Amino acid sequence: MEKHEMRNFIAHRVARELHDGDVVNLGIGLPTLVGNFVPKDVTIFLQSENGLIGLGPAPQGDAVDWDITNAGGQPVSLETGGMYFDSATSFGIIRGGHVDVTVLGSLQVDEKGSIANWIIPGKMVPGMGGAMDLLVGAKKVIVAMTHTARGKMKILKECTLPYTAVNQVNMIVTELGVMEITDKGILLTELAPGVTVEQIQEVTEAKLILSNDIKEMKI
Amino acid sequence: MKTFIKREEIKDHLFDGMSIMVGGFMCIGTPEVIVDEIVKSNVKDLTIICNDAGLPGKGVGKLIENGQVQKLVASHIGLNPMAGQLMGEEKLIIHLIPQGTLAEKIRAGGAGLGGFLTPTGLGTIVEKGKDILKVDGKEYILELPIRADLAILYGTTVDTHGNVLYTKTTRNFNPLMATATDNVIVQARQVIDVLDPDTIHTPHIFVDYVVKEVE
Asked: B129 lies in a domain?
């Protein structure tokens, strides 16, 4: 798969986890693509932590209104029924458990469901933004990312980078498969077409627990 | 009637070493006219409290580029490469705080609270040096309130009494910061006689001065 195909494949699979009526927060980058694949018969309410629910598509040309932006500061639109609020309300929504699903990218995830995605000491310090609040507050945390980064493993026994949150991730979706975080470790539930258990384990530092019924990852 | 001032008078409210809360999120809802006056004044050793480091040539970015900021308290600096670079060279102190915690610290500062308990940051370096309290068997970090000398805010519609409405996503941190500083200056995109009392986001009692965007 080409890189953009891979990203779309991951986003498409994540979209299948969303249910009618869910309040959903999508992170910047790959997770944003999830919005493109929500089934027609499913209505979700996209929350953006800078202060809106009902995030709509990016407007084009004259329709751009710089007073309506997403958490990346880019122009978006508001769907009918949507609304704006201040940052304290926004994080009350997030921390208070009113967001059903959050989808984030990550640098590392480990078998305890801990995640590291906000700092590479000495190299890159973008800051945590709203990620730490989303991770502890959302009812379901899905990590959507490519399985490895330039050949380096990202799904580990224990994160080596500073944590963004501990024990908060519920599910990992990559181009190779779908994994759930359980008390015992990472359970492999789905494999992408043509991928074997051996292949996915080879690029995963954490020991994968095999589901009794590993399904093919469908989009 | 609220005190309307000219932009040239903003400098009278500035001093070296002061702390300033700057409204806006990635510069959306940031009062650029007031920021420009701070740049012109050349006041230095500022502590800036803002969601982010702004963008190159925009918002808080302008103050950082002009070497006026000693310390930045923010949740994210990723869109302003200069902030990260200056931090690496130890020319700028940056204190990163989770966004929801930053918002609530400001809210607490303005609401007379001694702090609040949040699960955000547990098990991470955010909890370092802070008290961890248990309530009903669940752990929380004790976070303390934050206040500043001045807040500079961007109101979309301000009435002659100083009541403020912030449109769309320009609202963000603005109404919180209005409550948490000794002095509040609002840049008004437009001024009208009187706002509908049901649509006011910041009551005029929080506002000290208004400066018109177009004089």
From this structure: no
Give B69's strand partners. Answer: B46
Residues of chain A with pLDDT under 50: none
> Domain of A105?
3-216
Cβ–Cβ < 8 Å for A70, A76: yes
Q: Coil, strand or helix: which one is B206? A: helix
Q: Above pLDDT 90, what percent of chain A?
A: 94
How confident is chain B (215 residues) per 10-residue block, as mean pLDDT?
92 98 98 98 98 98 98 96 94 97 98 98 98 98 98 98 98 98 98 98 98 94
Q: According to the model, what pLDDT value does residue A125 have?
A: 87
Any chain A CB within 8 A of the CB of B59? no
CATH of the domain at B173: 3.40.1080.10
* Contact between residue B73 and residue B180 where contact means Cβ atoms under 8 Å apart: no
Domain count of chain B? Answer: 1
CATH number for the domain spanning A77: value is 3.40.1080.10
Question: Which residue range is the domain that position B104 belongs to?
Answer: 3-113+145-212
pLDDT of residue B215: 84
Residue B10 placed within a domain: yes
Domain count, chain A: 1
Cβ atoms of B173 and B163 within 8 Å: the answer is no
Whether A130 and chain B come into contact, CB under 8 Å, resolves to yes
The reported pLDDT for the residue numbered A219 is 87
Q: What is the ipTM of this complex?
A: 0.97
Vertex A55: Cα angle to A52 and A57 (nearest 5) = 150
Q: What is the length of chain B? A: 215
List the single residue in B with minimal CA-CA distance to A66: B28
Name the residue in chain B with its Cα closest to that of A97.
B119
Query: What is the pLDDT, as a whole number, of residue B1?
Result: 61
Determine contact, residues B116/A96, Cβ cutoff 8 Å: no
Contact B171 A66 (CB under 8 A): no
According to the model, what pLDDT value does residue A124 have? 84
Q: Is residue B171 in some structural domain?
A: yes
Contacts of A52 (CB under 8 A, 6+ apart): A68, A78, A82, A83, A84, A85, B168, B169
- Find tokens 């941190």 and name the residue: B173
The Cα-based distances of B41 to A98, B63, B66, B184 in angstroms read 44, 11, 11, 18
